[in-house]
Amino acid sequence: MERRGLDEELSRYGRRVARTLESFLERKAHELESVNGWGGDLTERLRQFCTAGKLIRGSLVLLTHDMLSFERTAGVTAPGCEAAAAAYELIHSFLLIHDDIMDRDRLRRGMPSIHYQYQKIVERITGTNGLHEGEGLGICAGDAALFLALELLSCETTAGCGPANTMKILLLWSRELSRVGVAQMQDVFFGTRHKEASEADIMSLYRFKTARYTFSVPFATGSILAGSDTPVTQALLNLGERFGVIYQLVDDRIDLFGEAKKTGKPIGTDLQGKKQTLLHYYLQRFATPEQKRRISEIFRKDRITEEDIAYIRREAVETGAVRRVEEMILKMKKESEKMLNALPVKEEYKRILGEILAHGVTRES
Amino acid sequence: MERRGLDEELSRYGRRVARTLESFLERKAHELESVNGWGGDLTERLRQFCTAGKLIRGSLVLLTHDMLSFERTAGVTAPGCEAAAAAYELIHSFLLIHDDIMDRDRLRRGMPSIHYQYQKIVERITGTNGLHEGEGLGICAGDAALFLALELLSCETTAGCGPANTMKILLLWSRELSRVGVAQMQDVFFGTRHKEASEADIMSLYRFKTARYTFSVPFATGSILAGSDTPVTQALLNLGERFGVIYQLVDDRIDLFGEAKKTGKPIGTDLQGKKQTLLHYYLQRFATPEQKRRISEIFRKDRITEEDIAYIRREAVETGAVRRVEEMILKMKKESEKMLNALPVKEEYKRILGEILAHGVTRES
After folding, report:
1. d(Cα B221, Cα B217) in Å, to the nearest integer?
2. Closest alpha carbon to B89 in B18, B185, B33
3. Which helix (H) or strand (E) covers residue B267, if one does?
4. What stretches of chain A show up as alpha helix (H) in DSSP?
């Protein structure tokens, strides 16, 4: 399957997730308007915010479901599955809304972040600085998004797929998401740059904050929805972890070596944002004391220059930090291919997953 | 049943909720420690925070369960019910943690609020102002508390009470809690004092932010756990709403007319905090233009004096605002008693609920 074919495949799933989200949020708008004016307004903001995302996680839920149940259901995905996929996207939005408050990010998915939207509203009405109220309203909006996700799951997925499977999904999500919360705490703390992260610290962040949450959980959710046996779900959790760590490592590489023209965002944001990536970690570990001094200086700077980025790029190659990360990626890619081939699914789906994996490694944006 | 008996009854339930919380959080400490050091630390902070509360909501879940299933189960509450009660208390803590960030409250349940605990940790380590990081860590801690609640529910309540009933509970909670989120948005906005709340606005806040969440949901949860029919659950939702609005109205009265010696907290915090209570609303509505001017002045002041409080007390009586609130309380008490008598439960439990209601009306702290 070609890249173009893969994109189309995933977009097709994405559109189904978007439709489910839209009709659910529209229905809830009427109900929440009866509480107060913020209710209907929130559901509209959430609709715009959720559907502006790539809906990758929801799409992976549906792909995995179809992959494991194709023969049994003749390609017809139950509406309960789409509700679970849409619910997971709402949870993803909940996390992004809260993350943007912590990072004070004003832009997300090509639009003002949710708390910043509220900050602007408060400022327009009161004429005073609305940062604190904007953050407060953003916390509430994130919380409400999460409860909307749980309603969608408990109502529509239960109706379509039965309470027992739905409960398994809730158990999976809640276990994984308390870990995401704890990993995010580590990330907030590392943002103060008062403790150097160890290799194990960074890998734990990659596993729990990104990899399992982005790939393992959607895979496992699709697997539960398809009624798979536990060992299959477990195999997909493990496979997802590797997909996700590769994804994060490639992300770090693109952030330093990418071309703004292709990525559509500035280069060196990890340096500027003082993110403790594995690439930065190896760079410091492999550097000579002389290099290390200059690197540390750059890491501490408030404003990173083009020259700083060029220096870090050069040293990342020269010290062997980039090679080390590349080796990790290739090792995990090989492990993933082996795991992928052992899955009890049709060749067609192995090819799709292989494409997702290959694209994850070679992508430039 | 005497007041002393009621206290003992509720404390007995509270201890069971506390034990369930403690053993669950202890078990999770080991697992979350494997993510990073914040994990085990968080579970211990949550244990202290949750068990320092009065655990009223969890106790009401168990009381209602026993009330509706006493004859069938001979007074033995299934462990799955205790897990649901403990999960609801964890959700309550999640909401308090986020509320304290929005209100910048540093004290809760006789200890530093969670985000303030983290702020202090960050400040000790970095030597710089840790307000923003403390708030970020608090948001994560709240989120994690919620997912721990969902795990407790999906794992232990499902095991004890079956997935179908557990899903009904999740549906109830998620529907009610997205309303709480939207009501809280209104509250955050009213905190800016740039819009006068209408009577309907305030009643909506009382219903959705306090009453249903504090009484209706615990009642309905216990009812679902006992396997009651939908009309019984619905009757309890309605009864809980009245209990809760009375509770809030009495709270407002105590805040203005209480004795610090009895309440253990300063008088007039609603005035100081610019809270739009129904008492303040009637006070302004019934006041003459002359009174209204002085009242508005006091509401806008940064620091409320003893004299201001004395003036507001006097005018609240003189304008008839207090009488109006008292009449509402008595009307709702009568309605509640009628609803209570129609419940299909033993006299013993009607007496207990009647005691809770009577205490709610006459309490002075």
Report:
1. 6
2. B18
3. none
4. 3-33, 37-51, 56-73, 79-103, 114-126, 131-152, 158-161, 163-190, 199-205, 217-225, 230-257, 260-263, 269-272, 278-286, 289-300, 306-318, 321-341, 347-362
- CB-CB under 8 Å, A188 with B140: yes
Residue with tokens 């309907």: B200
Cα Rg of chain A, angstroms: 21
Burial of A307 (0-12, 13-18, 19+ CB in 10 A): exposed
Residue B31: both structure tokens together: 């697992």
Its CATH class, for the domain covering A162-365, is mainly alpha
Give the nearest partner residue to B164 out of A125, A135, A163, using CB atoms: A163
Q: Is A280 exposed, middle or buried (0-12, 13-18, 19+ CB in 10 A)?
A: buried
CB pairs A-B closer than 8 Å: 197
| Residues near A213 by beta carbon (within 8 Å), at least 6 away in sequence | A176, A177, A180, A244
Long-range contacts of B30-34 (CB under 8 A, 24+ apart): B32/A178, B32/A179, B32/A182
Q: Taking Cα atoms as reference points, which of A217, A176, A222 lies closest to residue A81?
A: A222
- pLDDT under 70: residue ranges of chain B: 1-4, 70-77
Q: Please state, in angstroms and rounded to a whole number, the distance separating the CA atoms of residues B63 and B68.
A: 9
- CB–CB of B175 and A151 under 8 A? yes
> Which structure tokens are listed for A212?
């399992």
For residue A191, which phi and psi values (nearest 5 degrees)? -60, -20
- Inter-residue contact A269 to A255 (CB < 8 Å): yes
Residue B78's pLDDT is what?
74
Read off the pLDDT of residues B327-349 as tens digits, 9 standing for 90 and up: 999 999 999 999 999 999 999 99
CB B116 within 8 A of CB B106: yes
Does the distance separating the beta carbons of B135 and A188 come in below 8 Å?
Answer: no
Reported ipTM: the value is 0.94
Q: How far apart are CA A152 and CA B175, in angstroms?
A: 10
Asked whether the beta carbons of residue A177 and residue B147 sit closer than 8 angstroms, the reply is yes
Q: Where are the alpha helices (DSSP H) in chain B?
A: 3-33, 37-51, 56-73, 79-103, 114-126, 131-152, 158-161, 163-190, 199-205, 217-225, 230-257, 260-263, 269-272, 278-286, 289-300, 306-318, 321-341, 347-362
Reported pTM: 0.95
B115, A135 Cβ separation under 8 angstroms: no
Task: Name the minimum distance, in Å, from the CA of A231 to any CA of chain B.
Answer: 19
Q: What's residue A272's pLDDT?
A: 84
Q: Residue B182 corresponds to which tokens in the numbers above? A: 């939207």
Same fold, A1-161 and A162-365: yes
**Which pLDDT score, from 0 to 100, does residue A1 have?**
44
Residues with Cβ within 8 Å of A294's Cβ and at least 6 positions away in sequence, in order, are A311
Asked if B46 contacts B25 with a C-beta cutoff of 8 angstroms, the reply is yes
Q: Which residues 23-82 of chain B have a CB within 8 Å of chain A? A: 28, 32, 35-39, 42
Establish if B228 touches chain A: CB-CB under 8 angstroms: no
Task: Summarize pLDDT for A114-148 with one digit per residue, the tens.
Answer: 999 999 999 999 999 999 999 999 999 999 999 99
- Residues A154, B174: C-beta atoms closer than 8 Å: yes
Pairing of strands B111-112, B107-108: antiparallel
Nearest Cα residue to A29 out of A143, A148, A134? A148
Q: How far apart are CA A88 and CA A90, in angstroms?
A: 5
Chain A interface includes B211 (CB < 8 A): no
CATH class of the domain at B163-365: mainly alpha
User: What does the pLDDT read at residue A186?
Assistant: 94
What CATH fold (topology level) applies to the domain A1-161?
A: Farnesyl Diphosphate Synthase (1.10.600)
Q: Where are the domains of chain B?
A: 1-161, 163-365
CA distance A60 to chain B (A): 22
Q: Which two tokens stand for residue A360?
A: 């994850």
